[in-house]
Specification:
Helix 1 packs across helix 4 and helix 3 crosses helix 4. The chain is globular, with a radius of gyration of 17 Å. The protein has 9 helices and 8 strands. The protein folds into 2 domains: 136 residues, 3-Layer(aba) Sandwich (Rossmann fold), CATH 3.40.50; 64 residues, Putative phosphatase, domain 2 (DNA polymerase, domain 1). The chain is α/β, with parallel strands linked by helices and 214 residues long. Its EC number is 3.1.3.18.
Length: 214
């Protein structure tokens, strides 16, 4: 793998296995609202564009449902209390980040997860390796717009030259393209290789250690 100076990572499905906690909070909110629950596999395909869109996809009639805002609020409330129940780094991720950090690389997370949860998870799991963690906020366009990645580069005092974006979804592929960055697609996340190829994926890794240069 090519050596880069700056590594910007997606969070859910890339660094952390978060699907079961996302599903639990989604179904908690749906039960509260008297709506049908969703399977874990349904929720797997709903994630990637932020939790508001996750709930739009999970709630019947989406944002047009009169109970949408209340149900979405219940999701956020439950998720902030339970986002560490089963969430864990994927095997090999802590070792990858420590190795990159030891080589003097700049590391950041850019996620469509809401900002507070992104910050909490980054500080809890990667306090000594991740320098910057940026989540969804109202005043900045989320991925696949380039804004949050460009903000991360600015905070890292890093240029696009020598930077790479790493994620597990079509949104991540589009984000990298919009930022004019190469994209590494991981195959342990929420989307399979066939799906990623259909959406423009070109560089793939089966395990975290493959991200390291020789």
């Amino acid at each position: 793998m090519k050596d880069f100076e700056t590594y910007i990572f997606d969070l859910d499905g890339t660094l952390l296995s978060t699907l079961n906690d996302l599903a639990a909070s989604t179904n908690y909110a749906l039960r509260w609202a008297g709506m049908p629950e969703r399977s874990v596999e349904e929720i797997r395909m709903f994630v990637g564009n932020g939790v508001k869109l996750l709930m739009e996809r999970a709630i019947p009639d989406g944002i047009n449902n009169p109970k949408f805002e209340e149900t979405y609020a219940k999701f956020r409330e439950h998720y902030m209390e339970h986002n560490l129940d089963t969430t864990r780094p994927y095997d090999g991720i802590p070792e990858l980040l420590r190795e990159l950090k030891g080589r003097g690389k700049k590391l950041a997370i850019v996620s469509n997860k809401f900002y507070a949860a992104t910050q909490e998870l980054a500080k809890y799991f990667f306090p000594d390796t991740i320098e910057i963690a940026i989540g969804e906020r109202d005043n900045i366009r989320k991925k696949p717009a380039p804004d949050t990645v460009l903000e991360a580069l600015k905070q890292l005092n890093a240029s696009k030259a020598g930077a790479v974006y790493i994620g597990d979804s079509d949104v991540d592929i589009m984000t990298a393209k919009n930022c004019e960055l190469p994209c590494i697609s991981v195959l342990w996340g929420f989307r399979d290789k066939e799906f990623l190829i259909k959406h423009g994926g070109k560089i793939f890794v089966d395990k975290p250690s493959e991200i390291l240069s020789d």
